[in-house]
Amino acid sequence: MPKKDDDTKKPASETAPDQRWKLQVFYLCFYGFMTQIRPGESFITPYLLGADKNFTQAEVTNVITPVLTYSYMAMLVPIFLLTDYLRYKPVLVLQSLSHISIWLLLVLGTSVLAMQLMEFFYGVTMAARIAYSSYIFSLVAPSRYQRMASYSRSAVLLGVFTSSVLGQLCVTLGGVSFLTLNYVSLGFVTFGLVLTLFLERPRRSLFFNRPQEAGDGAASAELAKMAGGDSGGDARGWREAVLCRMLREVGALARQPQLRLWSLWWVFNSAGYYLMLYYVQILWNEIYPATDNSRVYNGGVDAASTLLGAVASFAAGYVKIRWTLWSELVIGVVTAFQAGLLLLMNTTTNIWLCYAAYVLFRGSYQFLVPIAIFQIATSLSKELCALVFGVNTFFATVLKTIITIIVADKRGLGLSVHPQFYVYFGYFTLLAVVYLLAAVSVGIRHSRRKQPAELALAQERPQLPTEVPAQEKSPEAGAMRA
After folding, report:
1. 95 vs 232, which has greater pLDDT?
2. Which residues of 398-431 are buried (b: 16+ CB within 10 A; e: fewer)?
3. What are the C-alpha distances in Å from 284 to residues 25, 46, 116?
4. Distance CA 471, CA 140 (A)
5. 270 with 396: CB under 8 angstroms?
6. Which residue did the predictor score with more confidence, 17 or 115?
7. Residue pLDDT, tens place only, 366-400
8. Alpha carbon distance 176, 169 (integer Å)
9. How far is it, in rounded angstroms, from Cα 337 to Cα 357?
10. CA nearest 299: which of 423, 399, 138, 171?
11. Residue 411 in contact with residue 295, Cβ under 8 Å?
12. Residue 87 and residue 208: Cα distance in Å, rounded?
């Protein structure tokens, strides 16, 4: 009987037959893999600048590409909230429809406005990535979160790698034109929409559709506590109370030095990282304006950088140091290394050297990502963790938008790609200087705390021989008096 009662209290994800949740996770991973197969993605910029579309570099750099940043910022918060409120699947459908729109516009569009609309839908797909990464939490028990999340992430990375290799093989060995490659990509994203329709819509989510059963564990208890301790209260009141209290708690958590440091790294470094990512293909085309499509190796470079990023992320899990003491120094050294790579990419005339610098830049960034995730998430609940990363990503997107308006947009400075990369080099150099100065400050504070302790220990050592006998005599003296 007790066993039966315990079973009734378990969430559905734990009482469901093993085969069912395993099939659901397998299907989700297969879906994540297949939706990344877009072999034309690595060649969008040369396609726009080439004979197929014949846009000028100024149009692509200063008019078309900035729309991606604006779209991402505009859609990030609404999609973050809708993902949870609508329970993932509708947002994944929206993402698939946006992917189809992107490649329809790439194939059929001929105007700058059509390409700006394409970038808008690209921003929607980027904002909707949160739906896939958080969907896994609704399928499995909390004890399986970490392992299943790694499976879903690995499926995505494998899909990106496969897509890049496939695109490169089609272009280099098969002589496939960029236009044909975009038709192939359109077919794959259409198949991705079909796969999306067969995803099961979860009954629960992290914030708006929380489980009501008492046995749903610590997450439910914590949310109930945040809502005022009354888990059976009004749903609307719960939504308002929980979100407000969680935001206030995020503000309080900002006082923790490690969480603050790595959140700032997430905001400032990811903003610079994605700006480089958006414009690097234009830089490659500037350095090596290949007239022969088979000599464009963007797909191979994306595959290599994805593979190195996966290896770097894996290796980061085995770095065991005292992060409270060394975090600033590690971040500063890596950021300085990235600044040097940006300068190399921008000044070299050798496309292969530029490719290598790009691969190393992405690998170094991906090395720090899992460390940042661990340092931020280690003391947070699942719900607060999602909110903290959402807030960090939002501020990073705002910063990225401000830089884009000033540097890249034609309504701002409207810089061409080489001056832009000098700006990004200066940006990362400034960050590196700040991080290294912070590392020096941490080292000085640590040594000052260490010196008084060592001095006190040194002062105590000479007294030990005289104090110990006295302590040994007192019991004997007491015994004699007795």
Report:
1. 95
2. ebbbebbeebbbeeeebbbbeebbebbbebbbeb
3. 39, 9, 21
4. 61
5. yes
6. 115
7. 999 888 888 887 767 666 777 788 888 999 999 99
8. 9
9. 10
10. 171
11. no
12. 9
Q: Where do the H-state alpha helices sit in 288-405? A: 298-316, 323-347, 351-377, 382-403
Is there a contact between 360 and 301 (Cβ–Cβ < 8 Å)? no
From the list 298, 353, 346, 421, the residue with the least C-alpha distance to 48 is 298
Q: Give the length of the chain.
A: 482
pLDDT tens track for 122-133: 999 999 998 888
Which residue do the tokens 């960029």 mark? 178
Rg (CA), the chain: 27
Tokens of 476: 């004997």
Question: Structure tokens of 266?
Answer: 């997430």
User: What DSSP character marks residue 407?
Assistant: I
Question: Of the ranges 397-401, 435-439, 478-482, which one carries the lowest mean pLDDT score?
Answer: 478-482
Interatomic CA distance for residues 224 and 246, integer angstroms: 12
Better-predicted residue by pLDDT, 448 or 354: 354
